[in-house]
Design goal:
The protein is built from 17 helices and 20 strands.
Length: about 475
């Protein structure tokens, strides 16, 4: 089982957001990967929380987060076969370079895009993000938006169910694990003036330093308050479902509440929350906190989180391990079986079954041709698809297919993206890549469009074809992936 190391910190100063969303990702990956957490000086409750989902924890002493720490992690824990996932604003370019130069895969969870990234992948679950927000390497892949919301399994399950009843008068309040400015108390004081009805379910994080002030307020207020501590994700979902409205920070907790329904109001408490706040409020998915006190009704919204994040993240991580090797004579039967798969034949330009003799002669010929490159996509030792490049003086014609049992896992996009990198890294002297896709092949059409190929609709043998073209110099110049 491959190892993944998660590097994030949490305390009363910076809050627990980085740790919580990293642990959400652990929960989605732990069935297929051996997950370990690296953290500086965690407090005891946080250690318990981490070990409830991770196979191990590595406790670092407090020290600057720089290349020295990265080198120490490389020398002590990592192998070149591992993945390390960084979640925090101090894991800047030099830190990432130490890990990448060593040879392991690097994923960054980021929402401030304030420095250059050399990571293999970037995850930013704030809505409205674009690749152009980032400075990154050509090979870096981007996983942006609510499709990649970092949520624990009970919330993903809640997102896939329909909420039938809502107790509109109850209010859920959570401003993160630390709430350094005690905004929770300020909100409760205003609620006492403006909206005193119902029960206020207030989540107090384990890093919150203001518990005494909150308890003193509870003794004298007219509000009905239930302070809740150290809730599991399942318990959190149950509480959220009791509340028809919520006040949260525009962070992971806001996405969690969106999985359960009700009206969401946002209080921004940190600079890094500006993008989530802007997207959710401008999209009318949530509303500014001031609107909570206006006593007006709000339109119900359509679900914005589909609960399918686990499959997406498993595909994301597995796809980082996909590598090319040159096809060989021994792969002839494998290619034959893939080529004659019913779905492959259906989407091919010529749909008739291929006789075995015809295939064998064709395969041997292609292996010998200097202008043909036949690449086999491998995940560990398992073949998962193929790419063939027919090289002409100025262009490379792409033919690709995905193994039947790997369809629907994002493999096609990875194979095509890896082909682009292969051409660049091996200095293959072509100006552009070309692909022809049948009109009904929706999966391949989506992949070429996603990778920003230029598209032109044409016809061949009275069939609708989509011609896709990508200029290699534009990829290199603009670092488009």
């Amino acid at each position: 089982m491959k190892k993944i190391y998660f590097r994030a910190d949490g305390n009363s100063q910076i809050g627990l957001g980085h740790v919580i969303r990293s642990l959400a990702l652990v929960d989605m990956l732990k069935e297929e990967f051996d997950c370990h957490f690296i953290i500086q000086n965690p407090f005891p409750d946080l250690v318990i929380q981490i070990l409830s989902v991770c196979n191990g924890i590595i406790k670092l002493s407090t020290s600057p987060i720089n290349e020295v720490e990265a080198k120490s992690i490389v020398d002590t824990y990592l192998t070149k076969e591992d993945i390390i996932i960084l979640d925090g604003y101090q894991f800047k370019t030099p830190y990432q370079k130490v890990l990448k130069n060593y040879g392991c895969k690097v994923i960054c969870i980021d929402d401030i895009y304030s420095y250059h990234f050399v990571a293999d992948a970037i995850i930013n679950h704030a809505g409205g993000m674009k690749k152009s927000n980032y400075s990154a390497e050509t090979y870096t892949r981007f996983y942006l938006g609510l499709k990649y919301a970092l949520l624990r399994p009970p919330f993903l399950k809640a997102a896939q169910s329909i909420r039938t009843t809502i107790e509109q008068s109850n209010t859920f309040i959570c401003l993160g694990g630390a709430d350094p400015a005690n905004d929770t108390l300020n909100i409760l004081e205003k609620c006492e003036e403006k909206s005193p009805n119902g029960i206020y379910y207030v989540i107090v994080g384990s890093a919150n330093p203001h518990k005494k002030a909150l308890f003193n307020f509870e003794k004298k207020t007219k509000l009905t308050i239930k302070f809740l501590f150290n809730l599991s994700a399942t318990e959190m979902v149950a509480v959220m479902k009791k509340c028809g409205q919520a006040i949260t920070s525009p962070s992971t907790i806001s996405f969690e509440y969106l999985c359960t329904g009700g009206q969401l109001f946002l209080k921004k408490i940190a600079a890094n929350q500006k993008d989530v706040y802007k997207y959710l409020t401008q999209s009318k998915i949530a509303y500014p906190l001031k609107d909570f006190f206006l006593n007006k009704s709000f339109k119900s919204r359509a679900p914005v989180i589909d609960g399918k994040q686990k499959r997406r993240f498993l595909n994301l991580v597995n796809n980082l391990f996909i590598k090319f090797e040159k096809a060989k004579t021994v792969h002839c039967d494998l290619y034959y079986n893939w080529a004659n798969d019913p779905e492959t034949r259906k989407q091919s330009l010529h749909s008739d079954p291929i006789p075995i003799e015809t295939h064998i002669n064709w395969f041997k010929k292609k292996l010998k041709e200097e202008h043909t490159i036949m690449l086999l996509g491998m995940l560990d030792q398992t073949p998962i698809g193929q790419v063939r490049l027919e090289i002409n003086p100025q262009e490379g014609l792409i033919n690709y297919s995905v193994a039947p049992n790997f369809r629907g896992r994002g493999v096609g996009a990875v194979l095509l993206q890896q082909t682009i990198f292969y051409v660049i890294e091996n200095n293959i002297s072509i100006r552009k890549l070309i692909g022809f896709i049948k009109g009904g092949n929706l999966a391949s059409l989506h992949i070429f469009r996603k990778l920003e190929f230029q598209e032109e609709v044409t016809t061949k043998d009275q069939k609708t074809l989509h011609r896709f073209e990508l200029l290699i110099e534009e990829v290199v110049k603009n670092k488009r992936f």
